[in-house]
């Protein structure tokens, strides 16, 4: 390794640069540097570029700005909190907003999902939930239960726990073997039977039964938890087949396995309800959340835990820490204040119901792209849609990447992953703006076969 060069001191003031210093996450860095897509402002349904163009946000930031951008009540709450209490240590000390937020979230979550652990992202939420599951079984005297079951095509963030239970090869292959003792359910997507389905497909509930095979292979006494996204988001909007989640819950109950719903994407209205658990009428043992909890304004995530799981861990002398886990920024005052204001907005503007009401029009609008050249499938559920493109055999991913890039020029932010495009607008989107999204995307898809 070459010896590091001494840096200039003092550091140069930030200013125009070649964009090379920031190693961007999940980004084609070299292509971006050559042709950047920069935004420097945002308002409502739009991003604003440094040269003043208004670009329609078709993906709510990154599935997170569900209340839209720069909403005044949220901005006000963050400003006020910064001036009042900038930071409070979450270990052995507390501040009111974190407790208030936990109470609000517990009230939003179904059944006895009443205890809330706070962290800063979806990845941390997932690793926290997996660790709670392991600690729970240990506290119950069943410490042999260490296996964690995820699902193919699952995305649970980028921590070692999350990539181990996750099912995306690209996110795993460079990073070693991951956690020992993980296994995976099959994914629920089958193009033959499900192509161009609006909502939950009829086919596929039986795929949950594969959990019985996994239990038979490893024995229930070695399995701590099963984690799934109720709707797999990042691998292209895969709604659960009708009856699938109920079946998964029943099998977990039969064998005493904890069931974790990773609701980092589905939480806070994406599927027309506070949580997908509510839409599907299935109560998991833990719900992970992040993103839209404060409309993406300040990093925040967490885990909502059923009371008996929490109770099992409240052991030992009262002065002792019960769970040796937490983050410096768990329950950060700014993040909590933003979340409280966001939850108020969701309630006052009835945004989850709005998403529910818009679902048919949104589904119909996106499905209208079906006839374009090289569209293999379109899936929609709630205010989420994915479009599978026939990619270029010589360059997988290039077609969707090009369409994402050209759509930005045409005034629309759309997400590309592999050769799949995703549209997941803020819940404040109007019907005419849904039309606008489709109108902007159509010619771009057509021009890039
Ligand atoms: C279901 C799910 N879990 C976890 C994560 C990771 O969240 P973060 O990027 O905040 O770490 C994501 C992010 O998209 C997600 O969709």
From TrEMBL:
InterPro entries: Aminotrans_3, Aminotrans_3_PPA_site, PyrdxlP-dep_Trfase, PyrdxlP-dep_Trfase_major, PyrdxlP-dep_Trfase_small. Its cofactor is pyridoxal 5'-phosphate. Its EC number is 2.6.1.18. Keywords: Aminotransferase, Pyridoxal phosphate, Transferase. Pfam families: Aminotran_3 (PF00202). It comes from the Bacteria. PROSITE patterns: AA_TRANSFER_CLASS_3. The keyword Transferase applies. Belongs to the class-III pyridoxal-phosphate-dependent aminotransferase family. This is Aspartate aminotransferase family protein.
């Amino acid at each position: 390794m070459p010896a590091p060069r001494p840096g200039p001191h003092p550091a140069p003031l930030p200013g125009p640069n070649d964009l090379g210093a920031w190693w961007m996450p999940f980004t084609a860095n070299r292509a971006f540097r050559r042709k950047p897509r920069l935004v420097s402002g945002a308002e409502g349904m739009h991003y604003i570029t440094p040269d003043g163009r208004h670009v329609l946000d078709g993906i709510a930031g990154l599935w997170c700005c569900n209340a839209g951008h720069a909403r005044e009540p949220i901005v006000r709450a963050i400003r006020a909190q910064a001036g009042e209490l900038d930071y409070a240590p979450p270990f052995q000390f507390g501040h009111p907003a974190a407790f208030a937020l936990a109470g609000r979230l517990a009230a939003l979550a179904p059944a006895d999902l009443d205890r809330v652990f706070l962290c800063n992202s979806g990845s941390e939420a997932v690793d926290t939930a997996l660790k709670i599951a392991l600690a729970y079984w240990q506290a119950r005297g069943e410490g042999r239960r260490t296996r964690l079951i995820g699902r193919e095509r699952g995305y649970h963030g980028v921590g070692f726990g999350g990539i181990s239970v996750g099912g995306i090869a690209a996110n795993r292959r460079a990073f070693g073997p991951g956690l020992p003792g993980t296994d995976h359910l099959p994914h629920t997507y089958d193009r033959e039977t499900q192509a161009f389905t609006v909502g939950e497909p009829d086919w596929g509930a039986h795929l949950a039964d594969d959990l019985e095979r996994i239990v038979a292979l490893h024995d229930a006494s070695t399995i701590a938890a099963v984690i799934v996204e109720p709707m797999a988001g990042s691998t292209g909007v895969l709604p659960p087949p009708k009856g699938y989640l109920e079946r998964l819950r029943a099998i977990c109950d039969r064998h005493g396995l904890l069931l974790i719903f990773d609701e980092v994407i589905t939480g806070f209205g994406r599927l027309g309800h506070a949580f997908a658990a509510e839409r599907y009428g299935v109560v998991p043992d833990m719900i992970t959340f992040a993103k839209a909890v404060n409309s993406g304004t300040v990093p925040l995530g967490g885990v909502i835990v059923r009371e008996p799981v929490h109770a099992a861990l409240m052991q030992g002398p009262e002065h002792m820490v019960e769970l040796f886990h937490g983050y410096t920024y768990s329950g950060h005052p700014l993040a909590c204040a933003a979340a409280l204001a966001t939850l108020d907005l969701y309630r006052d503007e009835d945004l989850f119901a709005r998403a529910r009401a818009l679902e048919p029009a949104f589904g119909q609008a996106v499905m209208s792209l079906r006839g374009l050249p090289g569209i293999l499938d379109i899936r929609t559920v709630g205010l989420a849609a994915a479009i599978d493109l026939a990619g270029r055999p010589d360059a997988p991913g290039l077609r969707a990447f090009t369409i994402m890039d050209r759509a930005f020029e045409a005034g629309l932010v759309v997400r590309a992953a592999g050769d799949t495009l995703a549209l997941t607008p803020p819940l404040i989107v109007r019907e005419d703006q849904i039309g606008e999204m489709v109108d902007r995307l159509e010619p771009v898809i057509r021009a890039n076969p």
